[in-house]
User: Fold these one by one.
Assistant:
Number 1:
Amino acid sequence: MNPADGAMPVRDEAQDDRAQAIRDALHDAIVERRLAPGAKLVETEVGELFEVSRTVVRASLQMLAFEGLVKIERNRGAFVAHPTPDEARQIFESRRVIEPEIAERATERLTDADIERFQAHLKEEARLLAERGPNARRAAIKASGEYHLLLASVAANQILERFMRELIARSSLVIALYGQSGASSCARPEHADILDALIARDGKKAADAIRHHIDHIEEDLDYKVVASAPLRHVLRL
Amino acid sequence: MNPADGAMPVRDEAQDDRAQAIRDALHDAIVERRLAPGAKLVETEVGELFEVSRTVVRASLQMLAFEGLVKIERNRGAFVAHPTPDEARQIFESRRVIEPEIAERATERLTDADIERFQAHLKEEARLLAERGPNARRAAIKASGEYHLLLASVAANQILERFMRELIARSSLVIALYGQSGASSCARPEHADILDALIARDGKKAADAIRHHIDHIEEDLDYKVVASAPLRHVLRL
DNA sequence: AGCGATCAAATTGTATGCAATCTGACGATG
DNA sequence: CATCGTCAGATTGCATACAATTTGATCGCT
């Protein structure tokens, strides 16, 4: 996979060159877990890093807040989201609603070029899983999510694709918080299974494969074990 | 239905009291078709109406842009969205993916209080359809959308509910642009049929009823007849 | 020491000023 | 008369200044 496409702009047309760039950078940092859930994002600090005023930073933070990756509390600031177990369940329920349908639609539209992209991606995923070290692990997590986004792009529905982008990013946060083994579900060859169903043009099978895959991801979670308590949310504030 | 709940704030917790209020007002104006697709929203103008600075207005417009109700073009300003036929198809495809599943989940969670809310809403819808005049028509359109949101709220998934809110609002724009008879689909007793299936606890039947309902809404559209051309989008810019 | 009030530093919320850009009009030129 | 260039007005993009709010610390009192 092209190493430059990590940004993957959310809006069709660039509207705020700079705000969008900052959003992308923060988005990646959150998804790759370089920014922990609950971390505070101070406007002036971010602004100095990117050499822009707070105005632009605020726009970026608002974007991330809309996507659910950041939570803005009035007069207190912006924090990397810290999904509750309940939110986590809703995220996966939403994925169970949307992704199987996306898979069915993707089956009908899959081109040879798409297949090549999938295969190249699978190869890259395997390579990252074989590597050791935290950076490889981070890259593997990110690549795993991008597989699902690749699937969404094939379905040719920009709205559902955007919904998926949000759900994938938030899933990454959930896994960071509640994931157990961290890699057990990723190690399964389920991504390859899904691709097989697509190539066979079997929509039902592809949808089922996705459902099972989501089941397995969620099975690896333990909502009891909260690594870093969000302090304020624990007491339902 | 409570006449004060038209705003229906998008974000769980109030974050920008004022920006949110302006967003709600503009949202209602767009959904009720007091603001035509393509209309320009000048920052200073809106700001004077609500007696706030452009800063706050910009935040509101950004919110609406994220929901797809407003399109912001760099250095040109914010315009009420003007969905293309292709976008319209994607909106309804997305609804076909999400709403039947919402109906199934709602079936499992429906309480007596919910049923009463539905019935009160149906009564109000019937009343508005019987009335004449553009204001009654507007209110009927809005109420029709709110029925679907009521359904979404029963499903107890805030994420899917938010997705639905966006899709319903954008559907309203699509119907404004491409709707033919304007009321044929609304006149059908399909909302009541859906409620019957819910009460019968028949998830499959409810899902089918929703699917048929969406089919009928879309059948009433004619993508050929574009009332007010968006000029710039016609030529794929 | 424990407790509470007051204050200062840090941070966000909002308004406003200036620069950049777009738009439409006017006028010069062929 | 048509066409193009220039310019003024309007509008947005961005930075910055000031107000409001939160937060943590210090000091005094019991």
Number 2:
Amino acid sequence: MRNLVSCCPIEEVMQILSGRWPTLLIYYLQQGTKRFNDLRRDNPTISHKMLAFELRKLEHAGIVLRTEFESYPLRVEYALTPAGKRLVPLIDALGDWWEATDGNAGEQDGNAADIVDFGQSEHV
Amino acid sequence: MRNLVSCCPIEEVMQILSGRWPTLLIYYLQQGTKRFNDLRRDNPTISHKMLAFELRKLEHAGIVLRTEFESYPLRVEYALTPAGKRLVPLIDALGDWWEATDGNAGEQDGNAADIVDFGQSEHV
DNA sequence: AGTAAATTACGCACCTTTTTGTTACCACGA
DNA sequence: TCGTGGTAACAAAAAGGTGCGTAATTTACT
């Protein structure tokens, strides 16, 4: 009575992990403790608004630990919590699954290389 | 050189699984073969446009197999591919992880029950 | 020595882009 | 006329980007 039977926890997880940034941020934080601008440098395409928002989301979810130091210009450090560290191999497994699928995907449909772009833009 | 080292496959997976519907649809399809309106009945809040779009996305990703029968009113069946079935336990693991985290989350922050709502609406 | 500028980690307001929903419409057969 | 499995057009909502402000301190320039 656990395996994908209660779909609710999965919905909650996806609410946290959905989007480009959560898994990426977990990836970078898994390398070690980082500061706000470290993460911005790690990922130059994220805006500071998004970074702040996603970090707060991950913090609330218990995945990221935020530590504030009252030094010169104010310093904040971000790190994975134990729960966040336990999450890493699960995300990892998804990546492995995708690579395995991707490897032999061509046999079904013919093309699987252009999956990346799902442009739904219809207002052009 | 595989474990969360190459972040790209994870980005691709999240591009497919992000959002409310993909994991939910996988959940319902894991119960067995379904037809379009079966899935609509399973999940009344999804619009048919979204359902069609998400199903096509999952189909392109090699997770869902679409079979069209030329019977009287036209009949289409959706089912998980082998790759889709292999994905199920991974999604499952995320749900289990969340439940485990949720169980002892109170020790860190005090409240972890109201994580669900991340209203970012600022234009009210 | 005095002034200007940069750093740090954001919050806020405005605007654009993307996503999602609503509605109508299609062909077909019972 | 209803249900089947959609597509296309339009509308609303959400997500995301940009730039400004903050406050203390250090560095850079003159």
Number 3:
Amino acid sequence: MSIESIIKSKVIEAIKVCYGQDIDDKTIQIQKTRREFEGDLTLVVFPFLRFSKKSPEDTANELGNFLKEKINCIEDFNVVKGFLNLLIDNTYWISVLNQAVATKNYGFKALEPGAKKVMIEYSSPNTNKPLHLGHIRNNLLGYSVAQILKANGYEVIKVNLVNDRGIHICKSMLAWLRFGGGETPESTGIKGDHLVGKYYVKFDQEYKKEMEALIAEGMDADEAKKQVSLLLEAQEMLRKWEAGDVEVVALWRKMNDWVLAGFDVTYAKMGVDFDKVYFESNTYKKGKAIVEKGLADGVLYQKDTGSVWANLEGDGLDHKLLLRDDGTSVYMTQDIGTAYERFNEFKIDEHIYVVGNEQNYHFQVLSLVLGKLGYEWHDKIQHLSYGMVELPEGKMKSREGTVVDADDLMDEMVNTARDTSNELGKLEGYSLEEAEDVYNKVAMGALKYFILKVDPKKNMMFNPKESIDFNGNTGPFIQYTYARIQSVLKKAIDSGMEIPDLASDKLEISVKESMLIQLIANYPNIITEAGDATSPAQVANYVYDLVKEYNQFYHDFPIAKEENVDLRFFRLVLSKQIGEIIKSGMSLLGIGVPERM
RNA sequence: GGUCCAGUAGCUCAGUUGGAUUAGAGCAAUAGCCUUCUAAGCUAUGGGUCCCAGGUUCGAAUCCUGGCUGGAUCACCA
């Protein structure tokens, strides 16, 4: 039982004994004592004044005396206004450290039979262009949230829904046919997704040229937009694809394969993966039967022209189209179908979609429509809605070339990491492979931490001109602290010292040391909270706080050089445990830690 | 126009289930600390009408109302 819950139960007892009142434990607020006051934990007594009918100071003193008497690890207390500051003794804190050390996968809940089953969909790229910075945020969030949910003891299924069909891919296909001269990834040495993306841009350029020509000939601008022959051809291509035209399908397959091979490389570099990949070319017709059944059941309605709609006015929204006049599916229809299949096939308890906040409306509607259709799990779909990544110039636009390409960005990060590392020259004795592994970890650590430390739901700013820092509140700073700890431990062992499994609990420890243990004690709560909030940022900020405190400790206290053996052992155990938590917390963010850097 | 989200230091961000007459980090700036466990570190200094105005109460960056600013969205697109 944690010290907080012990105190809470005793506070309830105290209020009962002293003031004859039963209180809810929600009225009990225990927080970390502020730095500038003496103590470890603080009880806020204001809520109890209406029971005690005494001044805040008197109430706090009464409660303080009661708690000190009843809880033996409370050494002393002091009162500042309505705040009761409790001093917890060293023995207790050291026992907390020892417990953490003795716990395998400290802070993680094990996967047990009957665990909650969660599916998380993320990435979901289009196959007409390479991944960019926006996708990076999506992928890192999806992967990290999956890790965090697993750490909370959930069974997690990661899925990707690849949008491999539609007018956008036809545009790339058409441009490639028209202007490509038979180029392939092999013939050009260009990564498949980038090659296809090049023709997506090419299409847009040629489209604009033709449109302007039409306008110059006197055509109305709105009309010209629709009459560009390239667009008409692309639309024709999509019709052929849907009709199963052999040539179009073969070209589609070839170019999609190029892109998917490219994505695999990017995913591997990013360090994300999936348990199952869906393709829209297989799922885009799904949901039609469900919608037709809804129509038959009278929960949906049909217009004269044939289209099928959901009336959401009762929920304060509009009408939503689910089947077109010609009976074909729209995106919403497909999502209805795939959600149904997933809940049925996997018996999942919850489904999280990692999708940008531009689709908030879509997911709101999806849940409502599923509810209308009578699926009781309609409220088990959760939209993990994240904010846009903005550049100083504003939003990224792929066709205007203002995107930050994912592959380029990652490569640049690795180059920067390599240069910095070589400048500092700390990897002497490492082989080329070992060194490259460190550069990669540091580069990706910097990028991932930069993105994940920001609250997912907020928009974030990325300035490509100012490369991501390696100092301060950054991934490399955290990795560095880990490497530092490993170095101390290694030197201690090399010089013949043993690092015991447990620290002696009869020691005088400093305020800084007890603060570090309190941070360690809080790690499990952080994992729970990050899981509830689906927010890797909470883990990131926690690890940063921990590391910042540790570096101050490291600077001010000898560890392996401490003369007092028990104290030295304690500090080695403490350092080792903090290293474990850094590694563990970073793994929740999908970030690796190097032994040296 | 309707709906949703955000607004905290020059910049990037924490802090938001209401708590300490003193709102935190990092970057950038300035000044220090490497014959001692990794200086990708540590220390110090300066930097704020927590968008504005009201309200709720012992107490508000945090909750409520109204406004301002920015973003997203409201397709027989995805």
Number 4:
Amino acid sequence: MVREGSPAKRAAIVRAALKVFLAEGYARAGVDAIAAEAGVSKRTIYDYYGDKERLFLAAIAETRAGHEQGFEALLQETIDDVTDLEDALFRFGRVFATEVAKSAERTEILRLMIAEAAHFPRLLADRPTRTALADRLEALHRRGLLDVPDPVEAAEFLGVLVTGPVQNRSWYGAVPLDQDEIDHLVRSGVRIFLAAYGR
Amino acid sequence: MVREGSPAKRAAIVRAALKVFLAEGYARAGVDAIAAEAGVSKRTIYDYYGDKERLFLAAIAETRAGHEQGFEALLQETIDDVTDLEDALFRFGRVFATEVAKSAERTEILRLMIAEAAHFPRLLADRPTRTALADRLEALHRRGLLDVPDPVEAAEFLGVLVTGPVQNRSWYGAVPLDQDEIDHLVRSGVRIFLAAYGR
DNA sequence: GCGCTACTACACTGCACGGTGTAGTGTGCT
DNA sequence: AGCACACTACACCGTGCAGTGTAGTAGCGC
């Protein structure tokens, strides 16, 4: 008995669900709390999504799709049409790492996915952001600005260099870091990347 | 009414608790299941540890202490008394990354800590393994084998370079990787590190 | 044997929570 | 007005589970 309902209400439910799941984790999160947060009756949630599990998966999928778009936009505005390569990579990494360290939705969702990976195998999809980044690195390689024989691997390392230390020190967003520390770590990460992959 | 009991029984309980917590996560894990796994009555668990939360924290602390010792031993047998630096770092990274990628206890516990970080702030202690690694890098710096002005930061990056891609691709141990892929990623990570910090 | 301690087996309480059923209300369409 | 539909409010069921209380047993020192 799944009602399709209005897109606005679906969005409200999914947003509320994400918030509660992120704060509590899947098992602790209560559907009553989600309903209250969404300003919707519990019954409506069940009419829309059937059960808690489907609601969870929908919330994750919806949000991840938004993140991919944001990531694509960030790539366009920092790495495409680059003049100063180090600066471009730094600006890219800065935004990315700052999201990570500020207990932002992005990292929390990663944390949630890691936590629930064993219980929801469907969460372990591919990682489109890495391939999007790899495409850019390959383009920079063709333009002679980088020496990147394996763009996918290089994208993996760039991502790790730029976000890894920030993730570790912030415990995946659970402890906030100040911007100076983030900037410093990102700067160092970019330098390391260029030392290895620069011309 | 906390009984101190026998060390052997405490160990059995903690081991069983860890197993169930790792498999199920904190909220889903049932004390009955832990009791069954430990071959002990539920009542005994409560007599020993008081409540589920304390049992959880004890299980984490106990296991982490063991890991620190193991890490220290690994450092000694790979990085101390080094002749071929790249090879030494590779051997170090290989063991470390393999643990990570094989869904081993070590990563699962990290995953669990990440998942529960928000609910158990006491889990977010310092990270003694990083400082242990930093000490070694500083020694290599003094011996003129590396150029490491900030050993703590360098240790952060070495750790990230060696384990990051493996963690990402294996979804923190949820998906096993084959040894060739691990070796390749570790090799690349070490080369990047040396490109940035080598003499 | 006696007493003490550690432990088990098990029944039980209280509660939180997933999920359902239903009566009633608001809104918009014809 | 009358109908259809979306939604809410709320009561309700079943269950799983943290935590407790207790009676009984096995072992051990004396």
